[in-house]
Write a structure and sequence with these properties.
With 173 residues, the protein is of the alpha/beta class. It is built from 3 helices and 8 strands; from the N terminus they run αββαββββββα. β2, α2 and β3 form a beta-alpha-beta unit. The longest helix is centred in the N-terminal third of the chain and has 17 residues. It is elongated, with a radius of gyration of 23 Å. About 5% of the residues have low confidence.
């Protein structure tokens, strides 16, 4: 029984795709001056309309936890952009044919891809001081993406992405 529990736990951990985030910021920025935010009105996120709403809801929730307020006259604006791309499948099956004898040889080998290509999504979150420095903080997040996921799973994934992306905002001096 213990073997099955350990096997299930291993499969569960391996099936959870990691969320990789990189952060960058302008080190001369005084982050304490920013208390309110809003989104660019002409923002093209690259997400579907429903996914954009899910992502913005997750972002609003996390910003609220950090003490920031959504405002019509914000201290800074947020821009979000995303794109999707596919990785080639990593699993292949090799089929080979060969022969030889009397110092003569030959061979043929082909790799046949097994499984589906991984779909990944990269989301970039930019914090922009439109009246001052311009771009002052950025998070770029990359994770796997299932286009057929249920709305609850998409929402949970966006919550995880936003939480990890904003984990280092504001940066420690």
């Amino acid at each position: 029984m213990k073997f099955y529990k350990m096997g299930f736990l291993t499969v569960l951990i391996l099936s959870c795709a990691p969320i990789r985030v990189t952060h960058d910021f302008d080190k001369t920025t005084d982050f304490s001056q920013f208390k309110t935010y809003n989104y660019f009105s002409d923002m093209k996120t690259g997400l579907s309309e429903l996914d954009t709403k899910r992502f913005l809801d997750a972002l609003d929730l996390e910003m609220d936890k950090k003490g920031f307020t959504l405002s019509e006259t914000p201290d800074f604006f947020i821009d979000i952009q995303s794109n999707e791309f596919q990785e080639a499948p990593r699993n292949t099956v090799g089929v080979g044919l060969g022969g030889g004898g009397r110092n003569v040889g030959g061979g043929i080998s082909i790799g046949i891809p097994v499984g589906q290509a991984n779909v990944n999504r990269q989301i970039r979150i930019d914090f922009v001081d439109e009246y001052g420095k311009g771009l002052f903080w950025q998070a770029v997040c990359e994770s796997s993406f299932n286009p057929n996921a249920l709305p609850e799973k998409r929402e949970a994934q966006f919550m995880a992405i936003v939480e990890k992306s904003l984990s280092k905002y504001p940066p420690k001096s």
